[in-house]
Amino acid sequence: MLTLLREQPGIRVPELAQALDVSQATVRNDMNALAAAGLLTRVRGGAVPSDRPGVEGPEFSARTGVNESAKLRIARWAADLVEDGDAILLDASSTVYHMAQFLENRRRLTVITNGIEVGRKLAANPSNTVILLGGAIRPNGASVTGLLSESLLRTLHIKLAFVSCVGFTRDVGLTEDDLEEAQLKSQMIASAGSVVALIDSSKFGQLALTPFARLDQVSHIFTDSDVDPGWVEQLRQACAMLTVCAVNTIATYSPCTPETTHYRIGFANLSEQIPFAVDVRRGLERAAHDAGIVDLIVADNQLDAERAIGVADRLLAQRLDLLIEYQVDTRAGEVIMTKCRDAGVPVIAVDIPMLGATFFGVDNYRAGYMAGAALGNWVREHWQGELDRLIVLDEPRTGPFAATRLRSQQEGLQSIIGPLPEDRILHLDCGNTAETTEVRLRTVFLDRVMTGAHRIAVISINDDAAIGAIAAARGMGRADDFIVVGQGADRRAREEMLRPDSRLVGSTSYEPERYGEQLIPLALSILRREPVPPAVYVNHYFITAQNLSEFYPAPLPQ
Q1: Terminal CA-to-CA distance of the chain, rounded, Å?
Q2: Measured in whole angstroms, how far is the alpha carbon of residue 502 from the centre of its chain?
Q3: Counting C-beta atoms within 10 Å of the first and last residue's C-beta, which end of the chain has fewer, N or C?
Q4: Worst-scoring range by mean pLDDT, 106-110, 139-143, 343-347, 456-460?
């Protein structure tokens, strides 16, 4: 495990479990044991080796280890602000250095930095353009300062600048001990559209030699959960946007507004390893910020029923006004709803209904039927309406409502090509992830009955399962025998559609990136005791490579 973590920084628990052929629970247990032995540091979704190979210079290496757990949490969530294709400025601080490992799955970044080590890490991705600011190398060998750096910065217009500091106070702002470093950071801030400050709690209340940024120049502050609550209140009074990163939750406090009522809304997300769910969470964070009266507290259910119940306990302990719950297990939903009723906290259930909660999300029958019909039309056109096998990628934990999504896909398919005998239909538990689907479907392809099947159609509970199925077919050399439809039209599905050799007919769009802009107004209506419908459904469209640009005009990365 340590070898894999060193070779593939940022690798997550599901990928480690697959690579090591063990369960995710085993991986987490072993990580905890290695962390206890001081050999790695746990971060959200995975871990990093404690020896941090590749960091040059004892001084910088020592700095990266100070408050490392807090810095890693801050870096992980700050990195989430960066999207493919962004132009960003990164300073040479140890906290920003930790961000690099969480940017390794981004593509086409333009990175301007005076940090030699952070530049080295991000330059390892050939799709990135990394510009090291010119000037004199500092004695610690980890950064560059000087007039050449400042001269270049004056010509640039950058989306985001990520900086840290030696000290921070509300009145003076961010401060540094080194005059040249402070001068360079001041120019970084002047060149950026938005400034994100990564400040671990030990730096609050500290005053270093010289300031380089006032509080009103900073768009967003990230810190750790050891920060004194008094600082949270001070920053709220100063109308600063603040995110506090704990081990299991993050809390984002919106800037102040003239409205006096402020609400605390919890969001228990499905999984931070699923692109669809990540898009839902990002959209929710944007909408909460835009509303200006919502403090959003986020946690990760990790596709696990017991964890979802524990997450609900932790969120309810934070005096929530409302909970937005996104999890897959109907039995866990009953327990969570009981807890929320006892606490007097209203609930919005996302995509999977929970008795007593306001439902928001998918119109399962409609979404499934349009995908099934599209699959039927493809089979009729390319395989003359004949199928050897239909594989149904199911997720039994979701209960009868999501099962409707799969049943309607079958009905849509058979409305075009006619009924299929039951002995040609194979139901497979996909585990709700691409990784699990790929492993289980590879085993299916080895079955003797499947070796003679050359017209195989697949319907799926979500895009993750569809992507995993395609990976299995390609890995087994069976792609030409295989066609699939998805549900969700998330980022990975849209990228897959544009491949010349894609086996994805298309996917029913749920627009996860727009969930937030509907969820926050719905939540506020509930909290203001305004009448709301028992169920609010998202719009659905069937997205293909041919109509993708109509719904997503921005070009996708290739």
Answers
A1: 31
A2: 25
A3: C
A4: 139-143
Same domain? For 399 and 490 the reply is yes
Check whether residue 168 and residue 221 sit in a common domain.
yes
Tracing tokens 């946007």 back to the chain, one arrives at: 241
Q: How many residues does the chain have?
A: 558
Tell me the one-letter amino acid at 539.
Answer: N
Among residues 339, 361, 383, the one where a domain terminates is 361
In this structure, are 377 and 444 located in the same domain?
A: yes
Residue 111 has pLDDT above 90, yes or no: yes
> How many folded domains does the chain comprise?
4
Whether 350 shows a pLDDT value over 50: the answer reads: yes
Do 93 and 127 fall into the same domain? yes
Q: Would residue 520 count as lying in a domain?
A: no
Cβ–Cβ < 8 Å for 461, 405: yes
- Residue 211 in any domain: the answer is yes
Residue 289 sits in a domain of what CATH number? 3.40.50.2300
Residue 546 lies in domain = 364-509+541-551
How far is Cα of residue 317 from the mean position of the Cα atoms in its chain?
24
Residue 542 is inside which H or E element, if any? strand 541-543
Distance separating alpha carbons of residues 497 and 524, to the nearest angstrom: 37
Q: What was the pLDDT predicted at 194?
A: 94
Answer yes or no: are the C-beta atoms of 121 and 101 closer than 8 Å: yes
Amino acid identity for residue 266 in this structure: G
DSSP 115: B
Angle at 62 between CA 59 and CA 66, to 5 degrees: 140
Token reading at 361: 């999300």
pTM of the model: 0.78
Query: Quick check: 60 and 117 in contact, CB under 8 A?
Result: yes
Q: 297 pLDDT exceeds 90?
A: yes
Report how far Cα 18 is from the mean position of its chain's Cα atoms. 20
The amino acid sitting at 354 is M
Q: Reply yes or no on whether the pLDDT at 497 is more than 90.
A: yes
Please state which of the ranges 153-162, 174-183, 291-300 shows the lowest mean pLDDT.
153-162
Considering the domain architecture, whether residues 91 and 137 belong to the same structural domain is answered as yes
Residues 157, 205 within the same domain = yes
What's the whole-number mean pLDDT along residues 75-96?
93
Least confident span in 374-378, 475-479, 550-554: 550-554
Alpha-carbon Rg for the chain, nearest whole angstrom, is 25
37 and 71 both lie in a single domain: no
Nearest CA among 56, 29, 39, 33 for reference residue 5: 39
CA distance 115 to 395: 46
As a three-state string, the secondary structure of 246-293 is CCCEEEEECCCCCCCCCEEEEEEECCCCCHHHHHHHHHHHHHHHHHCC
Report the relative pairing of strands 136-137 and 144-145 from DSSP bridges. Answer: antiparallel
Both 164 and 98 in one domain: the answer is yes
Q: CA geometry: angle at 351 spanning 345 and 357, to 5°?
A: 25
Neighbour count for residue 443 (Cβ, 10 Å): 11
Q: Is the residue at 485 inside a domain?
A: yes
Distance between CA 96 and CA 74 in Å, rounded?
A: 9
- Name residues whose C-beta falls within 8 Å of residue 451's C-beta, 6 or more positions apart in sequence: 445
